[in-house]
Amino acid sequence: MSRSADVRYTFTPSSSATSFEVVSFSLDESLSADGLPSDDGTPLPYRLSVELSSFDDNVDFSTLLDAPAHFAIWRDGQVVRHVHGIVTAWDQGDSGTHRTRYSAVLEPALARLTLRSNCRIFQQLSVPDIIGVLLKEHGLLGVEWNLSGPHLPREFACQWNESDWAFVQRISADEGIVLSIEHEANHHQLIFTDTTQSLPKGGALIYEPQAGGTADQPSLRKFRYSQRMAPTSTRGREYTFWNAKYNLEHQAAPYASEAKLGRVTSDVEVSSEYASSAPSTAGASGGKYERYRYPADYKKDEVGKPFTRTRLNAERREAAQAFGEGDAAFLVPGTSYSRARSATLLNLIDPPPATPPPPPATPLTPEQVAQQRAARYVRVEAAMANTAVRKRLRRCVVTMATEWSTALFEQHWNWLKGRPSDSRGIGVESCVSDDVYTRFQQHCMALSFWEVAGMPLDAGRQVHFHPGEFISAFKRCGWLSKDEFKRVYPRATQQNVDKYLIHINKVRNKYSLVDELIGSHFFGQAAVESNQLLWMSELSNGDPMTYFRHYEAAKNYVGWLGNVEWNDGGKFRGRGFKQMTGRGNYHKYWTYRGWLDPKSVKDNWWTNLGWWGLSGSYHQAQDANKPAIQDQATVARLIAEMRPPIIQNPDIVQIEPFNAIDTAGWFWAKNQLNSIAASDDTVTLTNRIRGDRARSPADFPTAAHYQERVDSASRIRGILGDSI
Known about the structure:
The protein has five domains: 4-112, Pnp Oxidase, Chain A (Roll), CATH 2.30.110.50; 117-201, Baseplate protein-like domains (Phage tail protein beta-alpha-beta fold, 3-Layer(bab) Sandwich), CATH 3.55.50; 233-317, no CATH class; 400-462, no CATH class; 544-719, no CATH class. It contains 23 helices and 24 strands. The chain has 724 residues and is α+β, with helices and mostly antiparallel strands. A hairpin with a 4-residue loop joins strand 7 (78-95) and strand 8 (100-107). 26% of the residues are buried. The longest helix is centred in the middle third of the chain and has 18 residues, at 366-383.
């Protein structure tokens, strides 16, 4: 740290009241598999080794091991970095006159996975599902998944004489899934992702290579960027006995944006999204270096393509690397930063010339540099009166310590008192007299409320933004706050709002439902279907299998719902925000999410009259309500012949909050309801939602609650149309 007097460290075990002082520490972190070997040899995301001292010479090891602990780095009275985990090792050292030395190792809770090994087989589960099972067995719940697309179920996955964590690492690497961790004071969040686009952005990282004296804020003092040669493509090939003549072969080349990394520039031709190699004299291979793999460990094309790209990314992970050295304790693996100098904000107000001026004939003296800076500050102050500049600054989001704390007054305002000259004779004159500074300090102290309100300084740096601009941008994104959504659905319980709102906001953006007219119809229809989030499963009067029997009648022969087996009506009842109903709709949604292989289902499986014990022709008048057969032998034969979709867990539409909301957005998009909603045609919209054939509002049955749908959409439109 640049100012050691302003920096301190704390270590707090949650299971012990003993107070510890931090003597020294070492924190090693990694996002990739080249991390820190654990006891079983597999890398862990981080390991904190900390040397401690305490007045207590009889600490109970049993209360500390496998228990949570928190390490914090403080700067100027605020926490700039949290490290939370469990204590995996604890040592007691020598005791002096008053204090005893201890050392501890802090690792993530998933270090427990390194302590158990197994031999087992997982069948018909995707990699995220398998990882979820293992984490749940170790009590690790609340894991966050940010996946860019579906990960198809594997026919089987074998864990063979390896620890649970080694198994998780291996199958994650196969599919390009990495783990990042977000730390807070009382817990750490595990985040699995397969795309760097979902990783958090850390903002600007200040780079001051020639900073003299004491740095004003954390920054990089050294920065080095390097490239090295790397494979330019990967190719994988497999064989399947299902189609022996077909080559399951896939190739991956770098995206155009990264094609020149690790390559001779003249060897690269960029075309559209991908890059290719042009003939050159760069070695006998002409600059093309392909990694070929057989067998490639996949059995389907839809798996082979992402597998091949994942392997290319692994082969090229060292093609471009950056190295830095500094005192920015907030740096975290899995977070992207933009390199910026401290003049970033000044450049927003006083943009530099498009064409830099030529360098001076002789280097400027420090005094001349200071004079140039002072002149720029004068320009910046004058530019602040410019309307265009003020509008640009209204869009800025600034992270800084709160100015409403008495404890932080000096941090914010001591610059007014100037700075004495350093060894080079450069200093800053005081802006105000001592009397003016004292009166200003008293004024600020009287206004400060942070400590009075009991708000902790360790809450982190505060985010400052223009409230009107923020709310305006927030609404343009179609993101509803809790208060706004409570106006949309006033009867919704707070528990259900907390449970579903984040997913509702995601689905609105995912399926382009942010337009106020379209959104009002979407919410108006769903208000009736879910009774304002009260239920996510269709209700029954009595036994559900008996109550929903009409959903599996022979009228499904004409493609009504796709229910063909006895009890399909109850099994595939309406679920979710829109009450998705019928085996046919479940089949389409399962296929859309990648949970069901479309090749495993035969087209028009419901068209065989044998499902209802009929033969010959279908007669609507006499056969429509014919029940499904119950003869198990005949049903088994029909399943083998017609291959209907086999869905064992339809309840996940109701149980998983995202699925409950996403089914509504998917159904809306599949049936192209945006255009109907945009035309304000509630009759056609309700027909599409319910399957009615009404020509006017009067034609709808009472159970349709048509007028309630109209009234809800009208009321909600007024709410969504509110503007700043």
